[in-house]
Amino acid sequence: MPKLQRINLNLCVDHNPSAFLLSVHRFVAQVHDPQWLSVFLAELTEEDVTRTIYSGFYKQMVARGPPLADKVVRVCTALREAMTQSNENQDFYLQPILSTYVRAGHVGEAISLADSDQALSYLALLIDTDKLYEEALGVYNLQKALKIAGKSLKDPKEYVPYLTKLQQMDPAYMRFTIDKRLRKPQSALRNLVQCKDRTEECIQYVKSSGLYTLALELFKDQPEEYKQICLLYGDHLLNKQLYEEAGLMYQRGGDVDKAITALTRAGSLLQCLTLAAKQNFSEEALVEFHLALLSALLNQEKHSEAAELHSLMGKHEEAVSCLVEGRLWSRAIFLCHQHKQPQLVESLVKPVLLESQSRSLMDIRAKVADMEKHSTRLLVVREQQANPDRNFDALSDIQSDTSSLSSFSTSSGGTRSTKNTRKAQRKLWSLKEGNPREEQALLYTITELIQNTERLTSDVRTTCLALAELGLDTEAGTLQSAMTAALEKIQQIRHSVWPGSTAKKTGSDADAIDPTLTDMQLKFPPTSCISATWRLDIYS
């Protein structure tokens, strides 16, 4: 009746999905005609028609459940089971059963089931013959692929030689060739691994496909091939600058020299030293290795590891200098006393610590001075903007700049466009007096200064602790007082620049200044970056 009345057949399911799935055997028995079942399957969609084209008839049904998830697949599966379990001849429901596989996306299974020429012809009605041909290849059924190709517009000269060539291949290599054509690299590799006489081709395929992890799994019981894959993977990781992982792969591949080179570039101290110990380097080679590793560590600012390496080389003075350079004051002091060289505290640690305290003082005071200058200027700018006689020509200029920036940003031009974009960006955020966007530029700069100053609290605590350890209470107290005064000034500036506002940004937004802050974001004060435990009570 639904078909005669031109009712969308999805309504049979959507009216009550649960009831339909429970009574699917009765549905098959009542419809009975395979052609009508095929029509029903052809019309199935994921759309719930009770919520779309027939929604007007269901407005009064308040307590309706959610739409049936994966509707097409679930209905096809249920109908297939019902038709398979019916008392009819096996071929009676063949066409609708094939439809259930096709509609559910299991074309390969439909091809496997379609043994007769009539069944293949039916599939050719449901699916484009070129796609059906590819699917037949995908299940490695060359005979059916040949029959399907014969039903298409393909030239026999195009597919017959290819299928003949596949037929003559070793089964595993045939599957690999087909998978490669169909762009199924993982399946292709699994099949190629089974071809024992094609190891070199397999390794080259791993390299071209990048399936190193899968290859390691497939070759785990073949030591020589496994090592080759490890070395190739190491080269791949090295090119991606993943030096530590490359070093691990080189180790598995048995190339210790390459492993040491990669791990040295990674600055992996302990792993490098372990490998060096295994190599039994000569004294001269070991010194050369240590120097290369030391250079890598310092380039990566791994001062702690560099100091440890200096200590292993017996260069305790250099180790202390390394720690001092990294501002690791407490460790530097400990190392001096550990090696019974307290004089190094006076000669190496104390002078640099005092210099660091002095630089920190200057930095804090300079930032506070800049904040005061810019916040004072901001008040003047805001007062000028409140004046109704403001310069509209200037506003016109900045609107032109803004539109220029927009056009530059969206263009795909080359170097000139990029340079012009940067120039326009700098002009928009210029602190030059009279710039129509001077208020936004000042807000951005003040925000940056506040966060950079607050981030100094952690370093100030570390410096004050080291100064206290050396009995330099005056210097420590001076530094902490300067930081305290700076934070008090910041609090005043927050209230004057953003009166009545609270911090808008949270979480990771507090970690870095975004150079593309919008004007709306600048209307709120920045989130505090103050270290919670920075202040020492002994200097409060």
UniProtKB/TrEMBL annotation:
Question: Which organism does this record belong to?
Answer: Homalodisca liturata
| A Pfam family reported for this protein in Swiss-Prot or TrEMBL | HB_ELP1
Q: What is this protein called?
A: IkappaB kinase complex-associated protein
Q: Composition bias, kind Low complexity: at what positions?
A: 402-418
Q: Which Gene3D superfamilies match?
A: 1.25.40.470
Domain annotation ELP1 TPR: ranges: 173-332
Question: In what residue span(s) does the ELP1 alpha-solenoid domain sit?
Answer: 3-166
Among the record's GO biological process terms, what is one?
A: tRNA wobble base 5-methoxycarbonylmethyl-2-thiouridinylation
Q: Which residues form the ELP1 three-helical bundle domain?
A: 344-492
The ranges of region (Disordered) come to 402-426
Q: Which InterPro entries match?
A: A-sol_ELP1 (IPR056167), Elp1 (IPR006849), HB_ELP1 (IPR056169), TPR-like_helical_dom_sf (IPR011990), TPR_ELP1 (IPR056166)
> Listed GO molecular functions?
tRNA binding
